[in-house]
Write a structure and sequence with these properties.
Chain lengths: ~240, ~240
DNA sequence: ATTTGACTCGCACACTGTACGAGTCAAATC
DNA sequence: GATTTGACTCGTACAGTGTGCGAGTCAAAT
């Protein structure tokens, strides 16, 4: 009589509260778990409840350590920013250093595709982002850029890199487990119509999504990066 | 006895079903309304329920015309793609045409910041996107690019434009109604710590978020675009 | 007059982020 | 040793989300 069966919990069925066996939750621990979820299943894979269960914690426990989900994402973003490497321009020259930086950022985005959306979410202020920014600014300073041009040069490079890498990454994310070839096949009738109306576009599509799709991506990035660096070189005060 | 007061609806209180006064919902009508919401309040402002009420329709009526929300967004995206203009390369030369295209896309992103995320969501197949792609490919063909280089050249430009414009747009979206100056002030203590550890970054921040922030954005884009085009020019087969 | 097929929509389900307040514990204080 | 404090956890609740389903409504075709 006392207990409805459908009641979510009852004093009798519910286990005792968990003892404090682990020290406590910590920010680092939380960010670790969040990164696991993000890398495994993308932005959509991270929900506060899932994060909670992964930490063997209640759904809302995280909120004591972190103001809200956005803040958590900021922390996660800065954590992965630690992976960016900037070669020393003194030794390698500004162009090699910039190339290394660009490739490093692209690789980061490939490893953590969920960062793409976040990169654009306003200026990044975390310690790792700051350190990286310092280093890459030093590179362009070494190249001779000063004042506004210094930031313009950096911005040109990073905006390009985020653009390409974002594009590349979202492909993986969008259709998980579909190869470029399979996708091309699914496009069959659409492509035929295209041949009639826009042969240029049809040819373009066929050329890109060929079987060596990965290779095309690499070539394309190499091409674009060289363009941007060549362009920057035309603006260098000290050639 | 017959009616519980808390019942969501009752036969007696509920109004008769709406007569078919308007012809029906149409795709165009739906996309129109979706665009209103998107432009006014961004991606987060569009929910199927709000869309329904805006159309004087039930929350799920839209689902007969459109498979799901993603598909609706695809339609909306292609609709705004109609705003992109590509100047005629025969008359203006490829460089001017490419410039016009780039500025046009950037302006589109500024007008519709919610497109940023979507741009990266796989290749766009809608009619307007296709038409635009055809035209811009013609521009680079006119410049002498062929085969893979043709797509690499276009990709370099569009990736850069999406990169910058995405960055610029998300600033507006992120902190609505906060000027660059106000934001700088809120950064006070943070900046002081920065002066000590990363003076280069501190200087950089101060230089960028000055009072002529808008002007900085314009200059930066002009700089970057010129770089990219200069870089592309170094790859042109027929100079 | 009846059938058909185009279209609408209420309800339900499983899920989201997070505010709130009650609860639990370890260490500091008396 | 008893008490207080403050750090931390978490169940519940609320208002929202996208969308499947099935019943319902209507105009046109038969």
């Amino acid at each position: 009589m006392a207990g409805k069966e459908k009641a979510p919990t009852s004093v009798w069925t519910r286990p005792e509260r968990r003892r404090r066996e682990q020290p406590t939750l910590s920010r680092d621990q939380i960010v670790d778990a969040a990164l696991d979820l993000l890398d495994a299943e993308g932005l959509a894979g991270l929900s506060m409840r899932r994060l909670g269960t992964r930490l063997n914690a209640g759904a809302t426990s995280v909120y004591w350590h972190v103001a809200n989900k956005d803040e958590l994402l900021e922390l996660a973003l800065d954590r992965v920013m630690a992976e960016v490497r900037v070669p020393d321009p003194e030794q390698e020259g500004w162009r090699a250093a910039a190339t290394g930086y660009a490739r490093s950022v692209r690789a980061l985005i490939h490893r953590h595709p969920w960062t793409v959306t976040l990169f654009a979410g306003g200026p990044m202020l975390g310690p790792n982002a700051t350190r990286t920014l310092d280093e890459i600014l030093a590179v362009f300073e070494h190249a001779g850029f000063t004042g506004h041009d210094l930031e313009y040069a950096w911005s040109t490079l990073i905006d390009y890199v985020i653009g390409v890498a974002g594009n590349e990454a979202s492909w993986h994310t969008g259709q998980p487990g579909v190869t470029a070839e399979e996708w091309m096949e699914s496009l069959g009738p659409y492509l035929e119509g295209m041949d009639a109306q826009h042969p240029r576009v049809a040819a373009h599509i066929r050329e890109i999504w060929a079987k060596d799709y990965q290779n095309v991506l690499e070539e394309r990035f190499a091409f674009g990066l060289e363009c941007v660096l060549n362009g920057l070189a035309t603006r260098t005060p000290t050639p």
